[in-house]
Each structure stands twice: as structure tokens, then as C-alpha cells.
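Colleagues,

For the teaching module next term, I've prepared a clean inverse folding example: a structure given as C-alpha cells, and then the sequence designed for it. I'd like students to try predicting residues themselves before seeing the answer, so please don't circulate the second half yet.
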């Protein structure tokens, strides 16, 4: 399983023209929701763009290198976070007073972004576990995405993921990774 979700998994830019069943997304969510977040805050909000119209709405926000692959992907997920995630804490965390730890905008912003990022990574791993391929990306204008899809300002986009069944014949050779000694140290 570790090979499937991490070792052999690749980031995809090209996908087969095959729809992603909603049931797989629900199963992926049922896996990702168990990943840890601070105070069980679960701030991630995922907006799945299935239709061509919804992806056209996204087009003006995309960086030039990401337009074609995103328009052709069978599914695009906007991984966002709820800036008022703390409102759910009395129900989600064993200490209902935790709502007071995060209900200041600057504190909510950094914790929502951090824990929403974790959940986005859990989504990638869960999607891979369900047999899907993913191409996560940052090359877009967050303000334009938020204006188009989250105009009330409560949710903020973090990153995008193209999701589907990747065309393995079109991926390039794997890039190197940093070794333990390059990336880690002890104090």
C-alpha cells in the first residue's frame, strides 16, 4: 500500500478521458477525515469541479502552464480552508472551550491554512489509495479563485488538484529527492 500512495505514485498532468465516480471521492473523504489536525479542527473544504462550465470559471485564475492540463482533467478539486473552522470545535473536540483558542482572525488564518494543508495532503494520499491519480498545483491566482468560487470570504483557496486516471505514458522521469541527511537533523 505504501508503494501505491507514496513510493510509486507520481504527480500527473495528463489524464485519460474517464470520469471519476463520486463514490470514490466519498470513500477518499472517509479515509482523509481521520488524518490528524490540531484540536481535530478539520478546516479543509473541498470544492470538486466536475463540469466544463465550472472549469471555465476557473480558467482566468490559472497560470499559463496549468491551463491546458486543468481544462482537460476529468476533475479538479479546489482545496480550500474555512476561516471560521473553530465554530465546529464544540462538536468536534473534547474541550468545547477550544473555540476560544482560534476565534481571532490571525490565529484562525494560520491554523486554518496549516491544518487545511495537512488535510489536502491526506486527500492526495486517500485518492491514490482509491486508485486515482493526482496532480496538485499552486500555479494559480488565489484571489481570483476566491472571488469566483468563495465570494463571501469564509473559505480561502489553498491549492488545486487535478484528479483522475493518469496517463502513465506521459509522465517524465522521476526527479530526485533529498536524503535524510540533507533534510533532517537532530538537536
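(Answer key — instructors only)
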Amino acid at each position: 500500500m505504501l508503494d501505491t500512495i507514496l513510493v510509486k505514485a507520481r504527480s500527473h498532468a495528463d489524464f485519460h478521458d474517464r470520469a471519476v465516480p463520486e463514490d470514490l471521492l466519498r470513500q477518499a473523504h472517509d479515509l482523509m477525515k481521520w488524518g490528524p489536525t490540531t484540536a481535530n479542527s478539520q478546516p479543509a473544504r473541498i470544492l470538486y469541479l466536475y463540469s466544463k462550465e465550472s472549469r471555465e470559471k476557473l480558467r482566468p485564475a490559472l497560470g499559463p502552464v496549468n491551463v491546458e492540463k486543468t481544462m482537460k482533467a476529468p476533475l479538479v478539486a479546489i482545496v480550500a480552508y474555512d476561516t471560521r473552522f473553530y465554530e465546529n470545535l464544540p462538536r468536534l473536540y473534547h474541550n468545547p472551550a477550544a473555540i476560544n483558542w482560534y476565534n481571532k482572525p490571525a490565529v484562525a488564518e494560520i491554523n486554518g491554512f496549516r491544518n487545511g494543508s495537512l488535510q489536502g495532503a491526506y486527500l492526495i494520499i486517500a485518492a491514490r489509495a482509491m486508485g486515482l491519480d493526482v496532480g496538485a498545483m499552486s500555479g494559480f491566482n488565489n484571489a481570483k479563485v476566491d472571488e469566483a468560487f468563495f465570494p463571501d470570504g469564509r473559505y480561502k483557496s489553498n491549492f488545486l488538484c487535478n484528479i483522475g486516471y493518469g496517463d502513465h505514458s506521459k509522465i517524465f522521469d522521476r526527479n530526485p529527492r533529498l536524503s535524510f541527511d540533507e533534510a533532517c537533523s537532530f538537536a
